[in-house]
């Protein structure tokens, strides 16, 4: 245990691993590099502290490799889904982006600025196990979104590579192998470090946006030089639908199929800890970091909206509808088709390379989101091993999962599209609901109504997408089931660990303990709070002295654990010393009794230099039911569990607090 931090009023002990106790073996030490705090809260994508932050526009490029890369396939998806109505459906998507998703996530950034996103906002509304299960389900959808982003983007990059006219002949038929190589390269970048990821993203986004600007600009010029394409499009549109109201109605119905154009918002807030704030930022109010995130979200939304609407118009006007169909040259690569068509094969190949690169690296923002979200929740819930707080093992795990998904879907982009859209829409819908509830709680009536309408629109979009692509829900259900199973197993395996992140002894508690420590013995009697009457303490004192043979002259201190949320795993404990009916009592509030008693006993030992002794009475009830009570409510058979926690935490018997049961 490290030396305690003390002052005149209290003593605070941080429950952390010994920094000198390094992992054995070079490989293990390399894997767990940065895993400093074994029990404390996770605070960033690379261990306890983010090593280096970056300007908001550079972090925007990290989220942009996901968001902007959808230009590689979004215009083709829109044309395939809406046909000649693609521009109108894209306008609906644009309005929903600027007046729906953007305001929602600007508020999420303000209220959940540590990178947890809307999941943390909803977690605070649902205490106890219900909140934890709800968060695990949302994490399942987030994992679906982020993992499929990695595999789908890599598969689409492979497809673009194969379709290039200069691609080697052996590319054909080897989509799976090429995709696996791209996924492995992505993992290697993150094994190397986060700094490298942001640097690569900045270059890729800058080049890709410039090339897209050139392609769209040349295509617009071609449209205005050949205005007949506008006339032909409008005549064909009227021939198909006739009434403008019918056109609007169909656009509203089909726009959910364009939902992939909304990806990127959740990762935009997930990587907030990487944004450099202002000098005056505080942990409680990082105003500069929040402003930087607002700039990130707004700039990305405006850039993407501009490209979405212009690319939709030029691709619809200039590319025959037959080319968008499966097997067509513009299927999944509409802008690439125009690049080759109007700027030649050389420029088209450069554009293809840029598209392949950004699609490959689109998984970077998803990987960053996973590295930020998973360690923030699962270890804190006790639902993942401690090594999940380290980056490199997580990268290897996520890369392995991406391999499995790629092999299962045979690197097929269309087969993964439903799961991708489902994950994106569920997260955006949950964010909309979270900010609506937040506005209502703060009695902001107009904003409550506005966010409520946005929530309904996203809910409709999500439901429509689920009915259109039910395979997405099935894939998400597998992720949710996997997270729940792993969480349950991990929670059981970690049952006997010390769970406190820190223990603070107040001044009165220190006074009690130091007074007894002068006699070289500290007797503690564990008491389950009842009615708090003088009779309760008098009877408890008499029974324990008799049953456990505590000398009449020996001083005793009662220790009580007041019940809290038992679903919490890690807690900051505060031990208060109070006097009740002439008896000295240590009170601590926690959702778990035996683990809390164990860590408080170890803290008392370290503070006073005296190994304390604690006295229990046997708990009534069936051992199996007591075990379930312990796992669910934090109670159960307290005495033997306290002893087991102490046994695992302190191997030296002479330094281990003694547990007496009568």
Features:
662 residues, alpha/beta, 9-stranded mixed sheet, 22 helices, 63% helix, 8% strand, disordered N terminus
Strand order of the largest sheet: 1-2-3-6-7-5-4-8-9
Alpha-carbon distance between the two ends: 31 Å
Shape: elongated
Number of helices: 22
Main sheet record: 9 strands, mixed
Q: Which residues sit in consecutive blocks of at least 5 with pLDDT less than 50? A: 1-8, 16-21, 36-50
Structural class: alpha/beta
Q: Work out the strand percent.
A: 5-15%
Overall pLDDT: 80
Rounded radius of gyration (Å): 30 Å
What's the SSE blueprint?
Layout: E1 5-6, E2 11-14, H1 26-31, H2 56-67, H3 74-82, H4 86-111, H5 118-125, H6 128-163, H7 175-192, H8 194-225, H9 228-241, H10 244-254, H11 265-270, H12 287-318, H13 334-377, H14 391-409, H15 413-441, H16 445-468, H17 471-493, E3 500-505, H18 507-517, E4 523-526, H19 534-548, E5 556-563, E6 571-580, E7 583-590, H20 593-608, E8 613-616, H21 623-633, H22 638-649, E9 658-661
Parallel strand pairs: 3-6, 4-5, 4-8, 5-7, 8-9
Antiparallel strand pairs: 1-2, 2-3, 6-7
Word description of this protein:
Helix 5 runs antiparallel to helix 6 and helix 15 (413-441) packs across helix 17. The chain is built from 22 helices and 9 strands. Helix content is 63%, strand content 8%. It is α/β, with parallel strands linked by helices.
